[in-house]
Amino acid sequence: LVSDLLKIEDLDTFKKRLVDIDSSLVKRAGNIKEGVEGCIGDTPLIRIKSLSEYTGCDILAKAEFLNGAGNSPKDRVALSIIEMAEERGLLIPHSGDTIYEGTVGSTGISLAVICRARGYKAHICMPNDVAIEKSDLLLKLGAEVERVRPAPIVDQNQFVNLARTRAAEHTASSDKPGRGLFADQFETEANWRAHLKGTGPEIYEQTGGSLDAFVSGAGTGGTISGVALFLKSKLPDIKIVLADPPGSGLFNRIKYGVMFDPKEREGTRRRHQVDTIIEGIGINRVTHNFDVGRELIDDAIRVNDDQAISMARWLVEHDGIFVGSSSAVNCVAATKLAKTLGPGHRIVTILCDSGARHLSKFWKSTEPVGGAENDVSLHAILDA
Ligand code: PMP
User: Fold this and answer.
1) What ipTM does this complex have?
2) How far is CA 182 from the centre of its chain?
3) CB 3.0–4.6 Å: which of 91, 125, 179, 211 could bond 207 by disulfide?
């Protein structure tokens, strides 16, 4: 039947292919992933051709949205948090144990998926201005979701504080089975250790140890710290550069050593609230996860919303890469850094999640890609 279906010349190629397949059998045997947890890590490193051509540098992006549980770098973190808790006897599967977390989405989605796979429940607290598709997805995964008014970290109802309280309430309650575990992505060492163990070594191996700079935004700081700790231990001269969105204090922390811009007038500093469409990165406190790698960060680049939106459109238009807001910020910063360093350097950054998680917010205001709006040049994007 096969030879009937194939033309004679195809058949020869097909037979050769069969021999090749047989000879690679031994090598590929066993390449079966153990559940969703087995699909976490070993993500591809993609050359972003349009940005590389424009800058004369090699701009590479770690495609973390291809992690196969919750489709973001947070898969690594969620698995690390759960495994560490299991090792310490803090979680018992199918006992009613529930993981509580405050998140703008990605960590919650990764936790909800792995909780399903391992027999735990997930309860997610998130700000109510986060893209609705993230909470819809969490609900479909069977997580409990509390959307709360955005509030400063000193407020007890701030989403992270609320998750901590809910975990304690669960453990204290006699009505609920099992215990409540607060995942605590901002402060737990399980977060940066996941990147020290996985993301950092993978980047080192995939580049053959040849790279000049690593660029990343920080939400908890786990990615930039964990990757920086690994890469600087192998390549002491590598530049670690923070990509920071509007309103975040981390840029100032790296540039001036304080969380505010010293050029701003004293009275306006603390009340200075900047609205941004960018989700997942930018923060106004130094978390443990940021602090652990802080001294390894050499520089910071500020990226605004217009630059991020235009870059996201550019990446679809020219490279077919469809990403969310934090990935676009990373790509703007990587391109700016390439222009500063000059041609011939190799820069690695992170693609965190897909644009599909951002249709109702970050991607909402834009026309479909392919229209006249795309005549904007990279030069104009970097200058916006
Ligand atoms: N991108 C997205 C979409 C995120 O949700 C996060 C984490 N909140 C980050 C980037 C930042 O990663 P990290 O927490 O490791 O700093």
Assistant:
1) 0.97
2) 20
3) 211
